[in-house]
Amino acid sequence: LHLGVTPAILRERYNMTEADVGSAQNNSQAVAQFLEQYYHPADLAEFMGMFGRGFQHQSQVARVVGTQGAGKAGLEASLDVEYIMSTGANISTWFFTNPGRHESQEPFLQWMVLLSNMSDLPWVHTVSYGDDEDSLSAAYMARINAEFMKAGVRGISLLFASGDSGAGCKHQDKGQNCFRPSFPASSPYVTTVGGTSFKNPFKMSYEVTDYISGGGFSNVFEMPEYQVSAVKAYLKSVTESLPPQSYFNTSGRAYPDMAALSDNYWVVSNRVPIPWVSGTSASTPVVGGMLSLINDQRLLQGLPPLGFLNPRLYRLQGQALFDVTEGCHLSCLDEQVQGKGFCAARSWDPVTGWGTPDYPALLAALRS
Amino acid sequence: SGYLEFDQDVLIPEDWTDVGRLDPSEELQLTFALKQQNVALLEETLRLVSDPDSPQYGKHLSLQEVASLVRPSELTQKAVRGWLQSHGITRCLAVLTQDFLQCSMTAAVAEALLPGSRFHRYVRDGVSSVRSSAPYQVHDDLHQHLDFVGGLHRLPPRGRDAGGSRRRSLAAG
Fold first, then answer.
1. Is A66 left (phi over 0), alpha (psi -120 to 50) or beta?
2. Of the N and C termini of chain A, which has fewer Cβ atoms inside 10 Å?
3. Residue B168 pLDDT
4. Closest-CA distance of chain A to residue B85, Å
5. Residues of chain A with C-beta less than 8 angstroms from the C-beta of B45
6. B106 with B27: CB under 8 angstroms?
């Protein structure tokens, strides 16, 4: 029994031992914030004091890129930094803060420009940000996608939260609604992380889908080769429970790629421990920290970092991940789908991807 | 002139309040995304360095190598810089890959540079952003040299603290 998700609960659920902490010299990880979100060092220290027992960890961010504003800490920033440093324990962590120095700057674009101008960057970046695909221009998304490629070829892993609105919904004229994918989650060149809950929220039980977990099919990006067979298998296996085809684009990039717990977290923000914090912005740094640990082991062996993970992740065919097969996520509240989006299934699905990490197995699979 | 981003979304979310058009002398910064070279090769390189079955797996590129791959052509760099200079815009910073250019200018110059644009200040929860209330165009000659211009649309989304937080009741237990 437990009272919510803490680092100890995550490490136990994902089979991480006391020894699973970072030790390589040339490893680092990062979280990025875009909304005048700042973390407070005292919150991080308090969080680690309360919840960081039982594993070696760092209690300070190694580097802040950008200028932290004054005033209150943001819940999002606190969550991200506290949890990437809990699974990616003892790994040097950077905090990118991108409020936009000028009113006319776009914070997310500023971050992309920054990545394009820094030769030494952390190997893993987690980002909890997204916009509806249909609110962005195709030219903008295509170019940002090229920026993700630029990061990928450099060996940088970019992880994005899949969103907290399930399949989403775009209300259209004449009641013909459709699902609403989110970008950058829908980019074929990032790893997108969905969310799960414990079957019993206060027990170390198995995981089911978190109904908010973002997922679906891009209307902009074609389905990349690496996921074609997995997605086709899903579409074939669940024909009866699939939403009507008018709601989604079966040939688009399907997401998420994997998932982790996203419900019922404890976060310390402004010196106050806050329970019941939820969302895929919780699961994303958790997965990011684990990938950093795997990078750590690879770097110690003289191997290159994981880089863009998806081709290798899909090659695993679910090996080393806990398959999540129960539950559906939300979507349009209309007569046709009645709030139900996609449902989890065996192997890959557009709610939890391939499932959640079994850390030692994933390490074994990705270390060589 | 024509639209670079033909599907620009100029709808301002309801939670942002328009507090008026920018004074023509007010400064703003725009980001110009210059057309890159070899994007298809970049994509193929990414596939090779990420595919565990490829002999290239893990052979990642340095930032310098990426820059050599995607750096906009001389023609593109010249055309964009010439265009900016012809409007008196000289305060620009380029990134190492030369595919982004960030320039400072007054609102009046920006509106002349990008026909159609009208810069307004929008405020939400004490945070202000400057964006265009109308779609922008660029001269046809520039279309082949630019992907988009940043700083005209795409207001920051609402953060978790401001209402996005999802907390659940204990009822599930």
1. left
2. N
3. 38
4. 20
5. 153
6. yes
Is the peptide bond preceding residue B52 cis, with omega within 30 degrees of 0? Answer: no
What letter represents residue B57's amino acid?
Answer: Y
Pick the catalytic residue: A76, A147, A164, A207? A76
Q: ipTM of this predicted complex? A: 0.95
With H, G, I as helix, E, B as strand and everything else as coil, classify residue B152: coil
Asked if pLDDT for residue A352 goes beyond 80, the answer is yes
Residue type, A187: S
Q: What is the pLDDT of residue B173?
A: 26
CATH of A1-367, one of 2.40.50.140, 3.40.50.200, 3.30.2400.10, 3.40.50.300: 3.40.50.200
Q: Are B46 and A149 in contact (CB under 8 A)?
A: yes
Per-residue pLDDT band at A101 (split at 50, 70, 90) = low
Q: pLDDT tens across B79-110, in order?
A: 999 999 999 999 999 999 999 999 999 999 99
